Amino acid sequence: MNPKSQDLENLVISVTDQIITWDGYEEFLDAAKRLKSYLTRVAAEDIILDILLSTQEKHLQLTELITAKVQQPVLYKLISTIISRKYFALLTANNFNSLLGMIAEEVEALPILKLTLALQLEPSDLLEVKARLASKYKTKFLLELKLKKNILGGFILEKDSTIVDASLEKVLEDYRHNWANALTNKMLN
């Protein structure tokens, strides 16, 4: 069964949303390339024909078989969705490659927010940060995290050409600059 264009578009949007949530676009692409290679090697068409009329349990087994090769959460959900909806035609190497192209176009059209932190956030804290940024910017985006210990604390956020520096390093730098100016002014008076 082939998905309708609206179903396919919804699938692409769903995967894009998951990639945004998991911060794993590069990881997703690497895993997807491995899966594409696997599908080509094992002649996925034969596997698909074998399971077209099979039970939900066999669908789950196929999902496990394929995702065991790539082990990536977003890809696992994508394959599970494809199999549960019986969109088996998407599991041929060419169709899967086309699907990946559609996903890549959707993701690469998103703006990138660069967030620099001094320490790695816990997953729950990272989700909260993403939710707050999504609320502020009212759009989907890819969040690029970077760790930089010398900022000591706080964060630096870059969006397009705008930079918000709320790092402790910046606060200390401003304090030192103001202190030096104040000292210079007192000496001149």
Largest sheet: 4 strands, mixed
Mean pLDDT: 79
Task: Say how many strands there are.
Answer: 4
**How far apart lie the N and C ends?**
84 Å
Q: Which strand order spans the largest sheet, edge to edge or round the barrel?
A: 2-1-3-4
Rg value? 23 Å
- Helicity range of the residues? 55-70%
Secondary-structure element series: HHHHHHEHEEEH
Residue stretches low in confidence (pLDDT < 50, at least 5 long) are: none
Principal-axes geometry comes out as elongated
**Structural class by secondary-structure content:** alpha+beta
Proportion in β-strands: 5-15%
Q: What is the domain tally?
A: 2
Number of helices: 8
Question: Quick summary of this structure?
Answer:
With 189 residues, this protein is of the alpha+beta class.
Which structural traits does this protein have?
single chain, 189 residues, alpha+beta, 2 domains, 4-stranded mixed beta sheet, elongated
Q: Would you mind describing this structure in some detail?
A:
With 189 residues, this protein is of the alpha+beta class. It folds into two domains: 5-108; 112-188. It is built from eight helices and four strands, in the order H-H-H-H-H-H-E-H-E-E-E-H. A four-stranded mixed beta sheet has the order 2-1-3-4. The longest helix is centred in the last third of the chain and has 21 residues, at 168-188. The model has no long low-confidence stretch (mean pLDDT 79).
